[in-house]
Specification:
Strand order of the largest sheet: 7-8-9-3-10-11
Structural class: alpha/beta
Number of strands: 11
Number of helices: 7
Distance between the termini: 30 Å
Strand content: 15-25%
Largest sheet: 6 strands, mixed
Shape: globular
Radius of gyration: 18 Å
Order of helices and strands: EEEHEEEHEHHHEHEHEE
Helix content: 25-40%
Length: about 230
């Protein structure tokens, strides 16, 4: 991102003059209070919003100047995980993951192998026939991760992926994201979970009121620049 600002239609400033580079294969935590700009920053990366000023690049391509018709192709290269899972309740685990392939026109002959691979990665291959309401919160989030990974994204964005989970499930999710990162995928996680950030010792970008106030390699969550932050 080069000198990126985002002002919403109601006049709220989401981001202010952000200059940031995330390199291929990095694992980055975005931390900060609610409303600090973490989610706004992620939404620019997968083009849910356009920057008011500045430019956003993914793999050297200026996506902030990308035609609307090209955005679906961008999003196939970017996996997104949400706090609320966003699973389809009337579909099984297998069908939820496969749906991400169906909408891109993937051959039905290729689909079983890719779905099985994704479910095996998140250790849910034995629950492929279950429905979301038959799973724990941690298992539902693992389904969401498998769905986000099904198209082999170059970047995985996770917005509060452990926000609704207990500590054990949260740690399981982070272990999966670490495994994904080791395989070469760039991982960006927005989180309030101080304990996980402190233990994992990855790059930490601190957001405050729409600005990037600190960028620390192998950092920790609780940084004086924004005051004490809540642990969950």
């Amino acid at each position: 991102m080069h000198n990126v600002s985002l002002i919403y239609p109601n006049g709220t400033r989401g981001l202010n003059s952000i200059d940031m580079t995330i390199n291929r294969g990095e694992f980055v935590f975005l931390v900060g209070h609610t409303g600090s700009g973490k989610s706004s920053l992620m939404k620019l990366i997968y083009r849910e919003h356009d920057p008011t000023t500045g430019a956003v690049y993914v793999e050297g391509i200026e996506i902030s100047d990308m035609k609307r018709s090209q955005i679906p192709f961008l999003r196939r290269r970017i996996g997104v995980i949400f706090q609320d899972f966003r699973l389809l309740g009337h579909k099984t685990v297998y069908e939820n993951v496969a749906y991400a392939l169906q909408v891109t026109g993937t051959s039905r002959y290729v689909m079983p192998r890719k779905v099985t691979k994704a479910l095996t990665l998140v250790n849910l291959q034995d629950k492929a026939d279950r429905f979301p309401n038959q799973l724990s919160g941690g298992e539902q989030q693992r389904v969401a991760i498998a769905r986000a990974l099904i198209n082999d994204p170059i970047i995985l964005l996770a917005d509060e992926p452990t926000g609704n989970l207990d500590p054990d499930s949260s740690w399981d999710i982070m272990q999966i994201l670490s495994k994904v990162n080791v395989s070469g995928t760039t991982v960006v996680v927005a989180t309030h979970n101080q304990q996980l950030v402190d233990v994992m010792q990855k790059r930490v970008i601190v957001m405050n009121r729409g600005e990037m106030v600190q960028d620390v390699e192998h950092g920790k969550y609780a940084i004086s620049a924004v005051g004490p932050l809540p642990s969950l």
